[in-house]
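LOG
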Amino acid sequence: MIDRCPIYLLLDNIRSMENVGSIFRTADAAGVKKIYLCGITPRPPRKEIDKAAVGAVDFVDWEYAESAELKVKSLKSKGIGIVALEQDPRSIPLSAPYALPSAVALVVGNEIDGISKEVLNLADQIIEIPMHGRKNSLNVAVATGIALFSLINN
């Protein structure tokens, strides 16, 4: 068994099963300790998730929580820092220096609406990936991978 990093992922109302599968695969590659699938986020077993995850759902611990807000509050009560990945006036660039607690949960949000305001307001830090193109956004699975590996190397 591979030791897992003290990094968690919380998926706040992700819609796409393929994105969820991709995030599972990336989480396994990064050594994420656990994924929290919240709200409408689809959960295994689903063939669309399994296809993109390429078996990673068997290696990454996960749990479903109906409310992302309540799950974030629970994680915070255990001393886990909450880092939200979102474009927001309060966000800092991913490359900016910031202190991380020994355990952290990266929160990513819905492909259209982002992270819910309630969850965003509970975050200890809000980070964003600077955009240089016209579209000004990335696929949530791609953005999760970039942020996750940045946190690991921080």
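LOG (cont.) second protein
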Amino acid sequence: MGTGLKRILPLALLALGGAGVAVAATGAHRGTVDTLKTAKYGTVLVNASGRTLYHMTPETRGKIKCTGACATIWPPLTITPGAKPTAGAGVKQAKLGTIKRPDGRTQVTYNGFPLYRYGDDKKRGEVEGQGEEHIWFVVAPTGKIVKTQGGGTTTTSTTTPTPTTTSSTSTTTGGGYGYGYGAG
């Protein structure tokens, strides 16, 4: 993907400084989920600004694992508590939901999958985060995770996603981006 080096410096600075610095956080999320046709992956979910949305496949059964430094590189799509996410063109309102993050914010889900942006996607329609760490993938309007180019072949997560609205929380342990693989 060529973006690994771009992430090393911010992560090193975070580790040395011990401070949570927001990386590439842009604009307020309005909670609207839209679609956009990409050249490589077909039609995918995007936020209201046209930024591609991703799901982290280790997040299953309503457990948020992308916190801390991870959430600075992969900002969650959040909305104001009590608000309802809205469906744009090509998005099914019934598949939209929310989940409470460990920090108390309300994150938008689609077909039970928590949605994130990628900090290295700088403009509308970029999909630089696709396949990162072999766990980050775009989501199709069908509610399936897209793992291959062409958008025609999609697979669902290997575990059943949680209902679209939940208040589950989790703690994060472990290194890297704060993925906390052992958390549960």
